[in-house]
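pasting for ref
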Amino acid sequence: MPPSRTYLFLLIAIFFAVSGCEGGLEPPPPEPEPTGAISGTVIYTGDWPPADQFRELIFVPLTFTPTDFTQILGEFIRGNLRSSDRLQTFVDSEEFFVGELDNGVYVYNIIANQFGPNALSDWRPLGVYEENDGLIMIEGDTVEVTIYVDFDNLPPFPPEQ
């Protein structure tokens, strides 16, 4: 190969090497934490039902849309479900927290109420998270949400799809 072509190829190779470099040997971005959390506020409006209809009141984030509460309880029994601590009744609002949630999308996020003695079937949603199309994305962080419970307009269950 004549010397002029060698220099031309060398110049082209140097040009591509220099133009492809955007910052040297930077470390890759950090991986997100393997779990995150949901911190939120529930706001109640309307008249509370009688006290005997509140055996349990909790916030439950779900990665699926259930067709009945036995699906939710099954996930809870298998250890695949986390919930908030018990929420207070007969208050205007309250804060809740659920930690150590696997990263992912939570598609059905509710204030759940056990209204009767049967822990396997006496459940209903009182409020459903509706912002962001109801989706909560956990990526190793803490997501803040607000859920509204309107006792005069409770959500349907199973949810309309």
